[in-house]
Amino acid sequence: xxxxxxxxxxxxxxxxxxxxxxxxxxxxxxxxxxxxxxxxxxxxxxxxxxxxxxxxxxxxxxxxxxxxxxxxxxxxxxxxxxxxxxxxxxxxxxxxxxxxxxxxxxxxxxxxxxxxxxxxxxxxxxxxxxxxxxxxxxxxxxxxxxxxxxxxxxxxxxxxxxxxxxxxxxxxxxxxxxxxxxxxxxxxxx
Length: 190
Description:
The chain is α/β, with parallel strands linked by helices.
């Protein structure tokens, strides 16, 4: 699927465009806003329930193997100065493999890029990121494409998370209640 429809939705969402500018100007180099901020924006638009602000935290992902584990907190601090009401969660995908293997996560080799990091996210529709370039252009990264996101499908990605983690996320995020139009594919049917 072409990224043009996603770009149109993002461009028509003032709060998201403002946050993309904050990330471009004060965040890590070549960082993307990803996960729920993008997914929820699209689902809200497609179901006629657009969001006037982020529903939860705003995930910012980037890749910099030169940084030390934990340096992303400095990026979060800079973003909080620029947008203090936003709950920022900044993650360097170069260090994700070092996280303790808890909660049903599987061991994974170190990532070599943001794209490779997104390939391990628990759901395909969540593995989408958008970045604002210096000239105002939008860059989209979506290792599984945009089909599930635009078709309102929640599908299990077995690369890192267990089925139990996938099912816990579905329940905790209350997606079916917020968007009854979703088609949630059971983990075993992936």
